[in-house]
Every structure is written in C-alpha cells, then in structure tokens.
Amino acid sequence: MRRYVIRRVAQAVGVLWAAYTVVFLVLDYLPGDPVAAMAGQGDQTAVDPAQLDRLRARYGFDKPVLVQYLDYLGRAVRGDFGDSVATGRPVTGMLAAAVPQTLQVTVAGMALAVLFGGGLAVLATYTRRRWLRSLLLSLPPLGVSVPVFWTGLLLVELFSFRLHVFPAFGDDGPRGLVLPAVALAILPGAMIAQVLAKSLLDTLDEPYAQTARAKGAGRARVHLRHALRNAALPALTVAGVLVGQLMANSVVIETVFSRNGVGRLTASAVTAQDIPVVQGVVVFAALVFVLVNLAVDLVYPLLDPRIAGAAAR
Amino acid sequence: MSRTLNKEPTAEPAVLRAADPPEAAPPGRAAPGLGRFLLRRPGLVLAALVAAAVVLAAFWPDLFTSRDPLTGVPAQRFSAPGGAHWFGTDELGRDVFARMVHGAALSMRATLIAVALAFVGGGLVGLVAGFVGGRVEGVLMRAVDVVLSIPALFLSLALVTALGYGTVKVAVAVGVASVATFARVMRAEVLKVRQAVYVEAARSCGARWYTVLARHVLPNAAGPVVVLATLDFGTAILAVSSLSFLGYGAPPPAPEWGTVIAGGRNYLANAWWLTVLPGAVIAATVLAANRIARALDGEWARRR
After folding, report:
1. What is the Cα–Cα distance from B56 to B243, expressed in whole angstroms?
2. DSSP label at A83?
3. Could you give the C-alpha distances from B184 to A68, A72, B116, in angstroms and in order?
4. What percent of chain B has pLDDT over 70?
5. Which of chain A's residues have a Cβ under 8 Å away from the Cβ of B2?
6. Is B12 helix (H, G, I), strand (E, B) or coil?
7. Distance, CA of B197 to CA of A40 (rounded, Å)
8. Rounded-to-integer distance, Cα B195 and Cα B211, Å
C-alpha cells in the first residue's frame, strides 16, 4: 500500500511538471511575440523599440528559451509565477485572492449536483411508474447539451429581472451564490445521474441484492442500503472529470455573474493577453485536477478492499 | 417478483441505451429496414431534422431568411418575437433569426475544423503509438496523459492567448484540446486489432507493414474513433460557442452563435429574446448532435 501511494504521488508530480512544460511551450513558443502583444494592446504603431527591449529584459524574453524555461520552472516550484503584465501584481497573490470566491461557488455547485443528480438517479431507478422513469431519465441528456452561459443567463432573466428573488450580479453574500451555483450544478448533476443510474441498475442485478430481497428486506431498504452504497463507488471515479468540467464552466459562469473568482481572472487575462496570469491559472487548474484524481486514486482502495488488494501487489 | 422487477424492459434507462429494445426480426423475412428503425424513434427523426436544418442554414442561409444579418432597421429596434421577426430584433434593429441562420456557417465551420483536427491529429498519434509500439508508444502516450491532465477549456484558453482571436483560431484551440482523447481511443483499438489472427495471417503471408496498416489495421480500428468523432460534435459546438461567448471568436458584427448571445446579455432586463432564443438554437443543435451520435453508437448496429 505504501509503495502504491508513493508511486501515485510521484506520478502526479511528474504529470504536473510536464503540464507546466506544455503550458510554457504553448504560451512562450507559439507564433506571436508576447512582448509586442503586451506593449501593443490595440495600437501597434505607438510601440517604441527601446521600450520593447526593456519589457523583454524585464520578463526575461531576451534570454535563450532553455534558460527562460529553467528560470521560470525554478520559480514556479516555489509558487512564484511572476507578475501580471496588466496590473503588475504578483500572479500568485491574484490567484490567492480569487480562489475563495471560486471555491464557494464550485463547492456549492458540486453539492447541488450530488444532491439532485444522485436523487434523480435513485428516484428513476426506484419508481415503478414507467412515465416517471422515462421522464426522469430524459433529463440528463438535456443537462449535458445546454450551454452553461445560456442557463446562467436564463436564471438571471427569470429570478433576478422577473421575480426579483436573487441578485443578478456580484459576489456578496450567500444570496448571490444561489444562481451561479445552480447554473454550475446542471452539467455535473446530469453526469452523476447518468453514471449512478447505470451503476444502480447493474448493482440491483447483483446476487447480493437478490439475496437481501429474498431474506425479506424491503424494496427501499435494498435500494438505499445495499445497492446505493455499492453503486456510488463507480460514480466516484468520475469525480476528477466533474471537477475539471466545473472549473472550466466557472470561467463562463463567473463572467456571466461578474464574480471575481479564478474563472473571471482567467477570462480577463486571456482578453488582455496577460501571459504570466494565463500561465499561472492553467497550471493551477492542472494542479487541482491532478490533486483530485490523486485523492480519488488514494481513497478508492480504502472504500473498495478488492482494489486495495490489487494495489498492494 | 424481485427478479422480474429488474428484468422489466423499462429497467434499461433511455439515457444509456436505445429508447426501446429493438425487437428481433421475424424469421425468414428481411431485417427491419431504416424506415422502421426511424419510425420507432421519433426523437431521432426530430434530431436528424434539426441537424439537417442547421447544415442547410450553414450552406444556403437564403433558404431560411432573406434578411441581412448585419444591417438593421433602426425603427424596429427591440421588437419582440412575432410574425415579422421570429426571434425579434436586437439593439440595432437586426433580425435575430437572420443572425442565427447566417451564424450557422461560422459556428459549423469552427465545429467541423475542431472535430476534424482532433480526429486526424489524435487518430495519427494513436495509430503510430499503437502500431509502432516500444519507446515511441511510451513517449507519445505519456504526452497524451499530460495533455489530459489540463482541463480542456483551460488548454484552449492558453492556445487562444498564444494564437489570438478569430473563428478558425478558436476552432484550432478547441480541436487541439481534444486530440489526446482521440489518441487514447485510437491506440486502444489499434492494440486490439493488432492482436487479431487476420493481421498475423497477413504478416505471415509476407504483406508489407504499410499494407497491413492500411488494409487491415486502420479499417478495423477506425470504427470507435468515428463514433467518438460524432460524440465530439456536441462537445465542440459547446466549447466553440463558450469561447465566442467570452469574446474570443469572430469580431462583433459577425453573427457567431456565442457572440450573438454575448451581445444580447446587455439587454437581459428588457429584451429576453436576444439571449433565450439563440441559446435554445445552440441547445437544440447540441441535443440533436448527441442524439444522432448515440444512434450511431450501437443503436443502429444492435437493431437486429
């Protein structure tokens, strides 16, 4: 088991380093002079060559690529992603200031997704009414097909401008959290519902579920105590994918609701071609993604002893 | 009782499988044809109609509207949806329906480029990795793992930052971000096929490696990758429209789908139709693409 943990952690670190390298290659190596883009910002004519050189020296673009890379990597390991071109503030600080906002809304969104996605799957597989089942099961494909910015705007339209229940914009207080969290929850909720419904149906066919029923356990008891506990495990494996989707959608949702989180930071950095910030944010997203997957890999054997046996070997 | 409970046909959720389990063909008669297959699935027919309409709009927008998507009639600003303007008009008096119809060309082109790039690029990487094997495979698949560890939209955003704005650049950014998924599926299929007896037979008959690759491995491994490509359509439409909603697509007067909605966002309080109806068009298109992909992925093959 300990060897398994060590190997998985080492793998995660390796992937992160390589992800950083990919981001570096994409941002610093692809066509387009980042410094010209920074200085240009609209009017290309007004750029002074001397100013360009000063900018180049300041961001280290005048050095060979390999030196730049090692220099940046060394600082990134220590958590320093340089300074934002647009604001001049350190990227790490900007990220740290934005993370709590995003964390609130994504955690709330994930909670809603688990609650409603899970509830839908349980109800759809439990009910004996055909129409209710097919109605419930037709919802998840809808959920994965609607653009998240559209659902966000629909919610604002309905609950802010028509019903005046929740504020449309801004990030103060729990009331402002409701609409973005709901908008964010739809996609992961639909995915959870799909995976869990399939897994529940498979589990209910397992001999132990039949045995429990044969021994006189009620339908609800078998469904919730026996089947759901085991069916929930496969759903856990998609947690990494869900978190990735949630982060991606938070870029759009935070723009829609004007919340000052990581997503909005990303969007405005891309608009301003603020390369250090984009770099920091993308590496941060990869870090979260890798950590979630690592956590799933490490927790899964604890929940499913069959895997633990395989992992120890 | 409990046993039969699970064996009810309804126990197969519509989400995961065919709408109805296809019945067996009566013995001695021809297998049920396309007509009956479609007749049993009204949703699929509707999806096909929606997809056909979008494709037609992309190529011949004049079939659907004679209005100009770019110049508006100032006197008709913000008119609500009705007989004259199906989707209403925007802040410049432009017909929103015409804008969506003409935008189909831009958004479909971007989607097509993205899917094609992912399909060809990912297919090639997977093919080489699976067929060559050894160290090449190790390096390629490690690279794929790394790309997969960056959430797709963030990779697209990094690419947009590097490449700049525009429909094609957004399409490339979306396509590159899904290359890794295709590479993975393609490699898995090639590995499976490479073990097959007929490949071994061809080899032992003295066929050259490129003949084996082109005539035996590629045709037999391509199936699941093609299915993945159809599934990727819906994802790509969503990703492209999200990026153009954020403002990285074609510059504003162009009626790209995401751009139209982003423009309508400023008038949420007084003109709901500027966001609600174009969004419904995107949702319907994605839904149709996903439904068709699901039909191709198995339903049709399992019909007998």
Report:
1. 24
2. B
3. 32, 31, 16
4. 87
5. 210, 213-214
6. coil
7. 61
8. 16
Q: Which residues of B270-302 are buried (b: 16+ CB within 10 A; e: fewer)?
A: ebbbbbbbbbebbbbbbbbbbbbbbbebebeee
CB–CB contact A124 B13 (8 Å): yes
Which residues, including other chains, have CB under 8 Å from residue A238's CB and lie 6 or more apart? A191, A192, A195
Minimal CA separation from A150 to chain B, in Å: 6
- Under a CB-based contact definition with an 8 Å cutoff, are residues B221 and B189 in contact? yes
Closest CA to A258 of A187, A198, A176: A176
pTM: 0.83
Contacts of A122 in chain B (CB under 8 A): none
SS3 B173: helix
Residue in A185, A157, A147 with CA at minimum distance from that of residue B284: A147
Give the pLDDT confidence of B68-121 residue by residue, as tens digits.
Answer: 777 777 777 777 777 777 777 777 778 888 888 888 888 899 999 999 999 999
Q: What are phi and psi of A244, to 5 degrees?
A: -60, -45
The residue that leads in pLDDT, A282 or B15, is: A282
**Sign of CA pseudo-dihedral B164, B168, B174, B177:** negative
| Residue from A138, A195, A208, A270 whose CB has the most chain B CBs within 10 Å, to mutate | A270
A48: left (phi over 0), alpha (psi -120 to 50) or beta: beta
Residue A306 reports pLDDT greater than 80: no
Instruction: Spell out which residues of chain A touch residue B287, defining contact as CB-CB under 8 Å.
Output: 141-142, 145
Q: Give the burial class of B125: count Cβ atoms within 10 A of its Cβ; 0-12 exposed, 13-18 middle, 19 or more buried.
A: buried
Positive or negative, the Cα torsion across A207, A208, A214, A220?
Answer: negative
Q: Per-residue pLDDT tens for A74-96?
A: 888 887 887 787 777 888 888 88
Write out the two tokens for A256: 């829609």
